[in-house]
């Protein structure tokens, strides 16, 4: 294969026969200058692009740009990321390692499911088992220039019983919580169990 480098204002140069270490500082790769992908943004932040669990195109500011919400497996946690596009370039706008439950967070129940983005809402469900009680929770974040926790619906039932208690929490109860500040574990300990 051939490595072609470009120097600002000059024609491309095939550097195969040239001493690369000597010539490289005088040139820059076209890849570095023009390609700006989601994968390269992840790599810049030491995240593996092959660990993307969900990738949704979403226009957070309702302009002409394509933004993306990603859920990525990051070691033992799931991270939520917002990658914004401005002037044709992508950048990491937010990363939160605490917003989503980990695999073991369900304590024997399914910890993360029903994730979706539609109609300006980001939502997911989670279950948690504590002693003889199962909590099934549906979290909903509304897009308002940032995803803001809109309401949480909690279904609480005793193991082996068919009846359940339904609890709905909204901003009047928990205040203004942006997704970048949301901590799943803290929310559970404060409002659920």
Task: Offer a concise description of the structure.
The chain is an alpha+beta fold and 193 residues long. It has five helices and eleven strands, in the order E-E-H-H-H-E-E-E-E-E-E-E-E-E-H-H.
Write the layout of secondary structure elements.
Blueprint: E1 4-5, E2 13-14, H1 20-23, H2 30-34, H3 38-44, E3 52-58, E4 67-74, E5 77-86, E6 89-96, E7 113-118, E8 121-130, E9 133-143, E10 147-158, E11 165-170, H4 171-174, H5 184-192
Antiparallel strand pairs: 1-2, 3-4, 4-5, 5-6, 7-8, 8-9, 9-10, 10-11
- As a percent range, the share of strand residues is 35-45%
Q: With helices defined by DSSP (H or I, 4 residues minimum), what is the helix count?
A: 5
Helix content: 10-25%
Strand order of the largest sheet: 7-8-9-10-11
Uncertain regions: pLDDT < 50 for 5+ in a row? 27-34
How far do the termini sit from each other?
A: 61 Å
Describe the global form. Answer: globular
Question: Can you write the helix and strand succession as a string?
Answer: EEHHHEEEEEEEEEHH
Report the radius of gyration as a whole number of Å. Answer: 23 Å
Mean pLDDT: 82
For the largest beta-sheet, the strand count, sense and barrel status come to: 5 strands, antiparallel
Going by helix content, strand content and strand pairing, the class is alpha+beta
Number of strands: 11
């Amino acid at each position: 294969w051939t490595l072609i480098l470009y120097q600002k204002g000059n024609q491309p140069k095939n550097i195969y026969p040239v001493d690369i270490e000597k010539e490289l500082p005088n040139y820059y790769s076209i890849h570095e200058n023009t390609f700006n992908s989601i994968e390269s943004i992840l790599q810049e932040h030491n995240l593996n692009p092959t660990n993307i669990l969900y990738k949704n195109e979403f226009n957070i500011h309702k302009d002409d740009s394509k933004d993306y919400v990603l859920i990525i497996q990051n070691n033992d946690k799931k991270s939520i990321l917002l990658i914004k596009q401005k002037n044709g370039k992508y950048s990491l706008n937010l990363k939160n390692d605490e917003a989503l439950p980990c695999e073991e967070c369900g304590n024997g129940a399914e910890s993360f499911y029903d994730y979706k983005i539609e109609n300006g809402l980001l939502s997911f469900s989670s279950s948690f088992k504590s002693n003889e009680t199962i909590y099934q929770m549906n979290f909903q974040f509304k897009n308002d220039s940032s995803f803001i926790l809109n309401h949480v619906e909690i279904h609480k039932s005793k193991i082996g019983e068919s009846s359940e208690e339904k609890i709905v929490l909204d901003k009047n109860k928990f205040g203004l919580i942006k997704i970048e500040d949301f901590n799943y574990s803290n929310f559970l300990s404060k409002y659920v169990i």
